[in-house]
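Batch 3, record 17
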Amino acid sequence: MNEVFRQSLTLMWQGMLAIFVVILSIYLVLMLFPKIFKKGK
Amino acid sequence: MEFLLQGLSATTWQQLVMYVIGSTLIYLAISKKLEPALLLPMGFGAILVNIPFSGALNGTMPGIGEVAGILEWMFEVGIEASEAMPLLLFIGIGAMIDFGPLLSNPKLVLFGAAAQFGIFATISIAALMGFPLKDAASIGIIGAADGPTSILVSQVLNSDYVGAIAVAAYSYMALVPIIQPFAIRLVTTKKERAIRMPYNPKNVSRMSRLLFPIVVTMFAGYVAPASVSLVGLLMFGNLIRESGVLGSLSETAQNVLANLITLLLGITISVSMQADKFVRYETMLIMLLGLIAFVFDTIAGVLFAKLLNLFTKNKVNPMVGAAGISAFPMSARVVQRMGQAADAQNHLLMHAVGANVAGQIASVIAGGVILGLVPGMLV
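Prediction for the assembled complex:
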């Protein structure tokens, strides 16, 4: 297995992890928004 | 009289190929209406920069010395030096996006993340094909389905294939209505495509709309600081839109700014389409890899939706996962059309739009993540 391919696999799991961490954080905030800010505010 | 034939005799076969490619892009833009705002300037630019001794590029004049060419100057200033053009375009894009459908159904944001998998799968395939990491990562970002992000990442990583990557990114975005149905059918049954999703629009509070761009920028910035310029300008545009007090600025960003940058970006990026850099075997590989990236994005989005369905009571139509790519609004329309083909009463558009705008966010985050991780691996 060549070095670049090995790096690309590292990039894959680290990259997808970083994206999911950000997106999940956004998801949690979006779930909280309606509870914090009532309709019409 | 020799000077009259100077250009003709200096023409190479590779330049002739570029004239054909340029003309094809113009044809696709005008006759087929495929991303005309980008493909037409790129096509014409491809012709301009490949005319021997083109004055659109920097050159040397006998007795005068170095002379700047307008397109090369714009490339150096607007793309190479600062990436200003693709970045400024994000202000306009941000001002155009209504995150309402996403705020109304937060679960859709997850599809944006899943549908970025094609980027990383393609990077690995490109690495196996022998591309160095900086080029493999630049090729993979075609899967962001976002032209400005592709240009920005490939330029920052100093890829040798910026032109081919830009052409592939915009071409495949235009071909989403052909690529995605094929990929979706590979991993779904007609029964799954017919799954209905009730749409219950919720009244999204003004405060939620205002805080959303700020919160997204902060989260993305802390996890992937390199994404701040991309995400930040996208969300800046959106904040202008949602503020409600900058109507004329929002309108300017959506129309004048976006149109002006698009116009200049297309013709400027053609500097990277000079025959000696573009007409080579690797360009064909990049076109193939770009297609693979879009297919993998789509499949990953669909499979993620199926995975979610294992754990949730209200089933999601798996096709909505495919709309998690950034190609807006083409991808959402594809899902709506395919949903209605499976069941005439199936209306998936608003769900797909929500996933699609999530894809916009996730794709710029992916671009920032790659810019943050790859340079550290190159040293």
